[in-house]
Prior knowledge:
The chain has helices at about 1-25, 25-40, 70-75, 90, 95-100, 105-110, 145-165, 195-210, 225-240, 260-275, 305-320, 365-380; strands spanning about 45-50, 55, 65, 80-85, 120-125, 180-185, 215-220, 250-255, 280-285, 325-330, 390, 395-400, 410-415, 425, 435-440, 460-465, 470, 480. The protein is of the alpha/beta class. The chain has 3 domains: about 1-35; about 45-385, TIM Barrel, CATH 3.20.20; about 390-480, Immunoglobulin-like (Sandwich). Strands 7-6-5-4-1-10-9-8 form an 8-stranded parallel β-sheet. It is globular and about 75 Å long. It starts with a helix and ends with a strand.
Amino acid sequence: MKKKILFIIIILAVILTSFYFFMGRPESEKETLLFEKDDISKNSPFGMLPFFSFKEPIGEKSPAPDQFDFGPTKDLGLKWGRAHYLIWPVVQPTKREVDQGVFDWSESDGILTAYPADVENIQNLVAFPARKNEMGEYVENFSFPNQEAEEAYKKFVQKAAERYDGDGNDDAPGLKSPVKYWQIDNEPDLKTNDWAGYSKLLNLSYEGIKSACPDCKVLIGGLGGETKGLMTFFTPAIEKSGGRYFDIFDYHCYGNKREWKKCGDLAGEIKRTFPDVEIWMSETGTWSGAPSYPPDPPPDSEQSEKDQSAALVKYHIYPFSQGVKKVFWAWGIIEGFGGPENNIFDNTGLIYDGLGPKDLGRGVKKLSYYTYRNLIKELEGADLDNVETLKEGGLYAYKFDRAYGEDKGRPVWILWNEESSGKNIVINELAGKDIRITESVPKYATGKEANKEDLFAGTGLRVSTDGRIDVPSGGVPIFVEISE
């Protein structure tokens, strides 16, 4: 009996201690803990398209997740993903379903309920499925035939936003990751000149989403045509609406290992055109290997794993410095885009899919996988509202403060040198401090050779007497931190 009483006392003590540990804290401290946990997820600047591998090749069925890739999703530390298209004619394929108010959510439920709870996701809404002519050119537009069709589409949007918002009212059974971010179509500027129709589509979508989920955010459909698309499609479409019917301006930008700068510069153009809008880049990437499509690739199109890894860092850091709040690496965690075999997008992934001339075997992680994981670790909790540009042009140097998380209050500097000879920079804040310098790219030729316990070369600890940092040539970014 005494043992039983003693056991109960111990249990009560544990419960009370735990209660005091959290509830006994000052309100401001409790709020800070909750705020930081939420912010690390919501404000994480890193995402992936797609953030899982597919059960079937793209084009055969609507992309459904393969459990293989949720392990790497968590290992990388990803908090954001984008993958699925919710297509109106799939949910309501005929006028009969529309007239009777019948919605078939089976396909989208099967996919969206598979998403893990700790990953936020962007959901694409598509009103008009893509159609092409015999030449492979898009022939669609975004104009509804009449007001009745507009109202039917808006009702579909309301139902979709309500089903997946996670508020407990008419939610999809088994939903773990509520959808709070909706993107209206995808790269519409590459499909049609019907910017007026897209303007109306954007308005209807925004109103439908907000009526069901006021705290949801709406993204425009991903600028795909760079400056031309910005000026000839999105600018008139947004101006015609007579109001701000979106919350986030999204754009897409790809290139080779040297073209990272154009992706940040495009954000500057967007900011000048729409000064007060939040900017995301939900698709970016460069490849490893030797893509054979498009035909007749340039002679220098082959890129090593090291090339891809170094460029991956720049495709994030430079846009962050230009005001971009989130960057999604695309196609994807595991390789495999579909379409012409061995195209560029078949080679931008971080894990080999077992296909193609330079492939090292399905499931083999590239160097870029480890680079990306480390980049996420270094910048998780970074304050992207206050990125400090120290130097640009030949030598690039940026300072990121960490606003929350494990490294709160500890800045990190990211530097690289595009010149043919070594350069240096004086950072007064580092003078007299113990610093640690680490290369961003693993010290191996390929990920297959990498020793997982000893990935990155660096100087270890040393004292920077005058704050001078030597940055070697070669364009590989380095991380500089003050030792605790």
